[in-house]
Structures are given as C-alpha cells and as structure tokens.
Task: inverse folding
C-alpha cells in the first residue's frame, strides 16, 4: 500500500525493498540506458533555446514566463503554521558583502547551502512528521559532476573537487549507498552566481540545467524500487546564489517520454515541450547581506515549502497537518497582544488600525506571578485536570500529549479503571471579541460537546460513534475568585472548556503513515464509518468533516478491532449549519453550495479511502481546482479504478456514490452494510454491527 515511508533497501533498521510490479525488466533496462547517456545539461539547454525564446516573446513585457508553483494563500497558511517552529541558527553562511569568484567564497557558499538544507529538512521533519525523537531520515551532500555521486561538502572540498561540484541534494539516508542514488533524491539545489534575470526568473542556461536535473530524477524514480507515498511525477529544484533563490517545479508523466538511446537530448527536449508542466517562483532574497537566512521572508518560505512537499512525496501526509499548526495562529496573536497589555486597552483609530496604549512598566513581582501562572497551564504527561459540571467533579490524568486531543485516564473512578479517553481542552474565554477566539478549538470542544449531547438526547448510539464521557469547565489550581457561577476570575485557565470522549484509538492517518492500512482495514473502515453515518443520519445529523484524522482504529480491550468516526464539531444539525471546507475531502456539493446533500458524507468517505489506499494526492490551492480534480477523477473513473485495485466491493460502492453525488436521494446504507460485511472475514462477521 502507498501512503507510508518508502521501503528502502535493506539497512541497519531492517527495512526492505520491493520491486515495482508495473515495469517490465526490459523497459527498466531501456530507461537505465537512457540515464547513462543523459549526462550533459548544456546539450539539453541548446535543444530548448528556440522554445524558450518563443515563450519569452509570447509573454508580456516584464512579466514572468512561468507561473509560480505556490499560491500566496498557501504560503500565508504555511507561514502561520511555522510561527511556533524554531529554525536552527546557521553558523556557516554565504557572505554576500565580499561576494566574488574567489575559491574561498565559493567554498563557503557550498558549506552554507548544505547547512541551510540540513536545517530545513531537520526542522520540518521534527515539526510535522517525527514522533518521540524519531531520527531524521535525510542526509545532505554535494553532487560531483564527474561521476554523478554525492559527497559531504567538507569531504569534497578536502579532495579538491570544488570546481566539479554541480549541485547540493537532500537524500534519503541509506548506509548501503553512502554516495547516494538518484531515486533517493528529495530535491536538488543549484548554487550559481547572479541567478536573477530581467524577468525575475532564472535565465535559460540556468533553467535548462534545472530541467535537466529534474528529468534525471523523474526517470530514476520511474525505475526505482522505492514505494512512493505520493506521486513520483513531480520534483522541485532549488536555484540560489549568495543572496537570492527561487523554486523550479517540474511535473509530468515520464511514460510519455520516447526513450530512444540514440537521441536522448532530442527526446528529452520534446518531452519538456509537450508533456511537462513547469512552474517557477519569482527570484527573491533568501539570505540577507550578512549571510543570515531570512527564515520568515517569502523568498525563504517558498524554498522551505518546496522542501515540505518533497518530504511529503516520500513519507505521505504529516502527523501534524499545516491546518492543525496554522489553527494556533489566532491564539498566538491573542497571547502576544495580552502580553503587551493590548488585550483590554487596544482600540481602533479612525483608519481602522490598532492604537497601542502607553508602554507600561511591569514590576518583578508581576513577572514572577506570570511565570508561576504559566507553569500551572502547561500540560504534560502525568498532569491531572479536574472537570467541573453542575452535578459532579471528575479528574483526568494525561498519559499522552498530542493535538488535537490528548489521551487521559479517569481518576478515582472504579467503573472506568484502566479505560482511556480522548481529552479535548479548549481556549480560555477571551477578553477580546469572539472573532479573536481560536475557532478550531471551539469546534473541537464546545461545538462537538453540543453535537454529542444532541446525539445522546435523540437516542443515537453505536459502537462506531464516540461517546460523551464528560464535559464542563476546568477547575484551576488555587482559589477561584470568579464573581458568579457564570463569570470568571483572572486565572488564565478559569472557564476553560473541556471535553472527554471514548473510545480511544489510532487515527487512520497514522495507520497509513505506518503502512498498516491494508485492504482488510479499508473495507472494515468503509463498513464502520458507513454504519456510523447511518446511525447519525437517522437522527438528522450529518458529519461534514470526514478525513483520515477523524477516524480512529480501536484495538485496546476488544477482541475484534473496529473504526470509530470522531471529530463531530462541524456536524450539520440544522439547515443553517455549514460543514468544514477541505479541498481534498469535502464533497462536490459542499464545495459548490457550502451545504451537504444526502450523499455528501459518503462521497467524503470515498475520497478518504482513495487517498489512504495510495491514490495520488493532488496539489489543490482553490475551490475551482478542487472541483476540476473531482470532475476529471470521476469522469475518467480514476477513483473507481484505484479502489478496485484494493477490493471489488469498494469499487462498486464508489460507483454507487458517484451516481448519487449532488442529488437529493439518500443512500441505501443497509444493503451496502450487508455487502461490505460479506467481504470481511467470515469468522468475524457475527461481531459486526450493521446499524446503530
């Protein structure tokens, strides 16, 4: 199955390779022969001169020849996600003040770009993918042009190979191949002098070199033993000098390349002209004049974002998504304003801008008190949170800290001894207007509490639905000075909402990353989620936010594991409610109308299964693009074909859902639950519930 870390060749960690079942041996040999002859970037650039000249002539004056690879809104959201992430301070930097063609400066630049790439992949891995100090699975090395092998920059310089270094690459670590393999390359960076041209994009010689390396990587991936989590038809090449940088994105199906070993450069040029899509970001500053990396500027941000996508191609969706980390932007902004005494005193002037109050001197006693309060707020393993409701108090001891929910165990409750719960902790009530509240946490805690309570009131119950274990307000340490039962004191946690649900399990996103989501799990997931949807819809409730992070696999304390559909904060209870908007998982009707139709949740379930079973995850940056992808995928039956590779019943169910998309006709859940049940192991059948 796709959607997991690539299976590297046998290493000390015990991972193994597997050959592609698609490519024949003769085709692989032809492509490898093509690669051995495809070694000179200048030859390719010469073949592209006329084509590039036509592109320049057809573009408007001073306008970029190629579209950028990323939308500004994507970069903004990524920037929000990185607000709480600290990048390593680089010690080796290119010094643009004394930039020249001298050997020492060029050597320093190679050392600097190596440090820059290493800091980037290490920080991204730890922030988005790593779990419990998992080691960074990447290495960074310089490409030696004579043999197309990789060496550490210091090693290459010590051997006197500076003049023959052509690029710096980020590669998968593999002790069996210390000098790297081309299909192990995540991305390449070309270090060249003065990369900016008149069109704010690289010149033809530099672009031709980038296209040459991109095509080499794509061909190497097409004959690779690696099992790519994402599409291998896209590669990012970074271009930089001692001040500026840009991103070149090349994507295309190399199966459409004519692998004629007698005219490799003609064939490569024809493929680039007719079968590739090229995107180039504007050349922008990534280092300041002193050589420090401008981590927060847009030039550096687009380079880091390209690296993020490169990692995702090999390791699949991250454990912590951009949306999850970006959701904390508002609360961080709120905290910064409160720290600067802007929480209560800030007002708007006549131009709509914030007018800051006078700077206030903070006494040492106030600082110490603030630090003590901050310590009380910190959640860690072993922390106990007490919940206050109208009728009882209940404690939860945290055993695992994570987002969006922690895992905890009830305290002093014999009935729940050893039983784990998901613990959602909301934002403390704000002094600002509600618009400043962290709406993501509001949906997870307050809104989900309401939905689960409504389910309980309407008598909706199923093993595939979460159960409300407790909800209320946190009892904070110390004496509470709130003026009334509905008020709050000045303690940071006073009035903080909390929600506890059962059961606890591992998300489908984690199962996919671990390579544990096989055909049996896919069918069972479809059955169990459909059963949950059947139960909820019988009470007039639709989910509206089905995605891999909102389905958990319950294995603890049960004979037969099963899936539970969680994350009901965006559920639709009445006509005015609006579902969550997700470019990859929302239904077509939800994206078009902002509402759900009868089959919307089932359509989202199909998308989730498709991506989790190895379907190509497209780069979507707009609703229009998402709708176009859906139309193309359904019309070409790409989704049905992919799910058909997993199971015929999933293919049949996707066909059925396709026939209902956008219509008012409800799903016949019962018949499909019976069919899905028959496709599961027969000896497990008696344990499967088909309705709530």
Result:
């Amino acid at each position: 199955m796709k959607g997991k870390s690539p299976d590297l060749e046998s290493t000390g960690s015990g991972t193994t390779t597997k050959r592609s079942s698609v490519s024949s041996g003769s085709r692989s040999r032809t492509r490898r022969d093509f690669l051995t002859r495809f070694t000179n970037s200048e030859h390719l650039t010469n073949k592209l001169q006329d084509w590039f000249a036509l592109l320049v002539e057809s573009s408007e004056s001073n306008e970029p020849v190629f579209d950028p690879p990323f939308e500004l809104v994507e970069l903004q959201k990524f920037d929000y996600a990185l607000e709480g992430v600290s990048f390593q301070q680089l010690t080796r930097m290119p010094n643009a003040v004394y930039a020249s063609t001298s050997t020492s400066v060029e050597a320093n630049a190679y050392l600097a770009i190596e440090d820059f790439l290493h800091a980037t992949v290490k920080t991204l891995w730890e922030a988005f993918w790593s779990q419990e100090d998992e080691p960074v699975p990447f290495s960074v090395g310089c490409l030696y042009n004579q043999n197309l092998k990789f060496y550490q920059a210091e090693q290459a310089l010590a051997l006197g190979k500076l003049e023959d270094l052509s690029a710096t690459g980020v590669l998968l670590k593999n002790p069996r191949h210390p000098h790297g393999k081309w299909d192990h390359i995540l991305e390449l960076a070309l270090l060249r002098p003065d990369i900016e041209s008149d069109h704010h994009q690289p010149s033809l010689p530099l672009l031709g070199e980038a296209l040459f390396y991109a095509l080499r990587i794509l061909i190497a991936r097409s004959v690779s033993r690696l099992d790519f989590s994402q599409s291998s038809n896209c590669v990012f090449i970074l271009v930089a000098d001692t001040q500026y940088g840009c991103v070149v994105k090349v994507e295309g199906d190399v199966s459409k390349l004519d692998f004629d070993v007698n005219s490799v450069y003609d064939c490569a040029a024809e493929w680039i002209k007719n079968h590739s899509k090229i995107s180039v970001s504007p050349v922008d500053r990534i280092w300041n004049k002193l050589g420090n990396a401008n981590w927060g500027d847009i030039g550096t941000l687009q380079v880091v974002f390209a690296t993020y996508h490169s990692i995702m191609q090999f390791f699949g969706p991250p454990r912590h998504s951009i949306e999850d980390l970006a959701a904390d932007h508002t609360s961080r902004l709120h905290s910064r304003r409160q720290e600067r005494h802007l929480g209560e005193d800030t007002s708007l002037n006549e131009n709509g801008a914030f007018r800051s109050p006078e700077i206030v001197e903070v006494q040492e006693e106030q600082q110490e008190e603030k630090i003590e309060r901050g310590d009380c707020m910190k959640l860690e393993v072993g922390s106990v949170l007490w919940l206050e409701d109208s009728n009882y108090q209940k404690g939860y001891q945290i055993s695992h800290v994570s987002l969006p929910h922690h895992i905890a165990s009830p305290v002093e409750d014999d009935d729940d001894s050893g039983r784990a719960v998901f613990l959602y902790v909301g934002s403390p009530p704000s002094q600002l207007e509600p618009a400043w509240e962290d709406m993501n946490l509001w949906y997870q805690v307050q809104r989900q509490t309401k939905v689960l309570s409504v389910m309980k009131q309407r008598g909706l119950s199923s093993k595939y639905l979460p159960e409300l274990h407790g909800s209320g307000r946190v009892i904070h340490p110390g004496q509470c000075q709130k003026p009334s039962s509905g008020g709050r004191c000045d303690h940071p946690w006073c009035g903080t909402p909390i929600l506890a649900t059962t059961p606890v399990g591992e998300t489908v996103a984690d199962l996919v990353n671990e390579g544990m989501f096989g055909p049996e799990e896919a069918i069972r997931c479809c059955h169990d989620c459909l059963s949950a949807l059947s139960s909820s819809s019988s009470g007039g409730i639709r989910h509206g936010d089905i995605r891999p992070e909102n389905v958990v696999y319950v294995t603890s304390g049960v004979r037969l594991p099963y899936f539970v559909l969680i994350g009901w904060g965006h559920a639709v209870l009445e006509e005015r409610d609006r579902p969550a908007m997700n470019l990859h998982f929302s239904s077509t009707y939800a994206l078009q109308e902002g509402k759900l139709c009868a089959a919307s949740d089932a359509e989202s379930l199909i998308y989730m299964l498709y991506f989790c079973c190895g379907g190509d995850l497209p780069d979507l940056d707009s609703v229009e693009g998402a709708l176009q992808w859906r139309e193309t995928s359904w019309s070409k039956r790409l989704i049905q074909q992919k799910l058909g590779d997993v199971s015929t019943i999933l293919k049949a169910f996707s066909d059925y859902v396709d026939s209902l998309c956008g219509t008012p006709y409800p799903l016949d859940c019962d018949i499909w639950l019976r069919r899905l049940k028959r496709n599961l192991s027969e000896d497990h059948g008696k344990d499967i519930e088909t309705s709530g």
Remarks:
- Residues 141 and 152 are 5 Å apart (CA to CA).
